[in-house]
């Protein structure tokens, strides 16, 4: 079962203190995906957020626009780097959260000795509470997660609506 934490990262104006966050590691991954299968039936709007270990490469060449450059910068770094966290928050069409857990934060295997990263990003993430030793020891293997996610009803489902926000300036200006 999950340890619930009511401290969200939503802007102060929209924080709902009844919202619950579940930290997902290898040991509770399958159990929490089962719970998500139940939640998604009535709460089919999913807000998504990710944490990556910074910017380690910059694209070279000519670009049609600044937006094209920013996209290529983001793409090449996402292709090169390992994801650290994926957050999914579920709500219905009216923006209401399910009772109990509404956000699942998936924590992936990440090794500071072996994986690429930008030092300034790791320092910021550490200050923000990311526990890299725990990610190394208890983090979810990304390929196993992908396999389970594909059968969870979260992806490849016409009724699911994905919400995200544009983070490229925060990610790309590093």
Summarize the helices and strands and which ones pair or pack.
Layout: E1 4-5, E2 20-24, H1 29-39, E3 45-51, H2 66-80, E4 85-91, E5 101-107, H3 119-127, H4 132-138, H5 142-150, E6 161-163, H6 168-172
Parallel strand pairs: 2-5, 3-6
Antiparallel strand pairs: 1-2, 3-4, 4-5
Organism: Nothobranchius pienaari
Enzyme class: hydrolase
GO molecular function, one term: RNA binding
Number of spatially distinct domains: 1
Judged by helices, strands and strand pairing, the structural class is alpha/beta
Helix content: 25-40%
How much of the residues is beta strand, in percent? 15-25%
**Parts with pLDDT < 50 across at least 5 consecutive residues:** 3-18, 169-174
> Topology as H/E string?
EEHEHEEHHHEH
**Mean residue pLDDT:** 87
Give the overall form. globular
Oligomer: single chain
Q: In the CATH hierarchy, what is the superfamily?
A: Ribonuclease H-like superfamily/Ribonuclease H
Helix segment count?
A: 6
The CATH class designation is Alpha Beta
Biggest beta sheet summary: 6 strands, mixed
Instruction: Classify the fold: give the CATH topology.
Output: Nucleotidyltransferase, domain 5
How far apart are the first and last residues' alpha carbons, in Å? 37 Å
């Amino acid at each position: 079962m999950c340890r619930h934490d009511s401290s969200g990262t939503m802007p102060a104006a929209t924080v709902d203190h009844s919202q619950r966050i579940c930290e997902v590691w290898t040991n509770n991954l399958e159990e929490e995906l089962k719970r998500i299968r139940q939640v998604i039936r009535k709460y089919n709007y999913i807000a998504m957020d990710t944490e990556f270990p910074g910017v380690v490469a910059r694209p070279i060449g000519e670009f049609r626009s600044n937006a094209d450059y920013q996209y290529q910068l983001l793409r090449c770094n996402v292709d090169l780097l390992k994801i650290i966290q994926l957050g999914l928050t579920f709500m219905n069409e009216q923006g209401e959260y399910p009772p109990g857990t509404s956000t699942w934060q998936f924590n992936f295997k990440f090794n500071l000795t072996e994986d690429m990263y930008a030092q300034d990003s790791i320092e910021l993430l550490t200050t923000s509470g990311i526990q890299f030793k725990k990610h190394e020891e208890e983090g979810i293997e990304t390929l196993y997660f992908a396999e389970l996610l594909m059968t969870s009803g979260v992806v490849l489902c016409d009724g699911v609506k994905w919400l995200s926000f544009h983070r490229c300036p925060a990610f790309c200006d590093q």
